[in-house]
Amino acid sequence: MPAPQQEAGAPPAAVGARGGEVRAVLVALLGSSLVGSVPMFATGLYRAGMDVQSLLFWRYAIALCVLWPLAIRFSSGLGQEWRLGGMALFLNALTLGMLQTYTYFRAVEGMPSSVVVTIFFTYPILTLALDRFLFGKPVATGSLAAVALVFTGALVTGWPALSFAGGDPIAVACAILTPVGFSIYIAVAYRFTLRTSALAGAAFIYSGMAVAYASIVLATGLKPPQGATGWASVLWIAIVGGALQISSFAYALPRLSAGAYSIIISMELVTVVLLGVAVLGEVLSTWQAMGIALVAAGIVADRLARARHAAAGAVAGDRSK
Asked: How far apart are CA 204 and CA 133, in angstroms?
């Protein structure tokens, strides 16, 4: 069985290897596409009477039924992984993770999802700032242009329907808090996913989330899904938008960086729009088409900027030999 990715403080073996980075990018794109389906199912559950805390408890509890058996099977030492980074991931999820998931789902409950998603996509800007000032990573001009394209794309996609009208004050506050909480959460997670294997890291993270929401539903009550359709929606959110997504997060994040990962997963916005068209029968407006094109351009621009930066670094290293 494979050992944890590496010793404490050391980068993953795949970091710096081009093939490993490409795989991480593809895994991150897949994960962001999967989680982009969650708001569509969550909205239907809210209409059927489920509250945010119940939905999130079911999401994490069911996902752990998948994650823990896999983590046990493929980790050579869960105790060691817990000491190296698992406990920190658990606590990060229990606190910041709970905050950013609750504010996001609570905002979707009380506001149009297009508005929530647009505000949420300020997080790549915040994450790049944390990369620069917390981890001392240089931020290329191309990456700055990329986050500008992503945010502009999110803004254009939601335009002209963007409005706080009809949103309750708590939902508005939650929408604003979500990108802040997510940026800090992802920056902390980056450091400690370097020290655990992907499946163990994913299980530790969702365990923290599950404990947080179990505590909440003990106080507020737990609502079960209504009927077969409700259970099917919860299972999709828990497994496809949950277990698979967090596994992709724990795999891709340490092989990229918090800033790079945050830009790549902007693909979530594209998924939200395209699912609305394909599944809900919504009409793809000119504004939406322009918006998702800008988001895609931002993702490509960031990858090109980072590839040029890596190539320049390699050339400089060869010349110094």
From this structure: 27
Torsion of CA 251, 254, 258, 263, to 10 degrees: -50
Give 296-307 pLDDT, tens digit per residue: 899 888 888 877
pLDDT over threshold 70, residue 214:
yes
Spatial CB neighbours of 122, under 8 Å, sequence gap ≥ 6 = 151, 179
Would you place residue 104 in the very low, low, confident or very high pLDDT band (cuts 50, 70, 90)?
confident
Domain coordinates of the chain in residue numbers? 18-311
Residue by residue, DSSP assigns 195-241 as: TS-HHHHHHHHHHHHHHHHHHHHHHH--PPP-HHHHHHHHHIIIIII
Question: Prior bond to 224 cis, omega within 30?
Answer: no
Residue found by looking up tokens 């794109």 in the block: 29
Picking from 180, 164, 35, the residue whose alpha carbon sits closest to that of residue 111 is 164
Q: List, in order, residues 6 or more apart from 269 with CB less than 8 Å away.
A: 36, 117, 121, 153, 154, 157, 291, 292, 295
Following CA atoms 139, 145, 150, 152 in sequence, which dihedral angle do they give, to the nearest 10 degrees?
140
For the segment 146-172, what is each residue's pLDDT rounded down to a tens digit? 888 988 888 887 776 666 666 688 988
d(CA 55, CA 222): 9
Residue 244: band (very low, low, confident or very high) from pLDDT cuts 50, 70, 90: very high
> Half-sphere exposure of residue 190, counting CA atoms within 13 Å on the CB side?
23
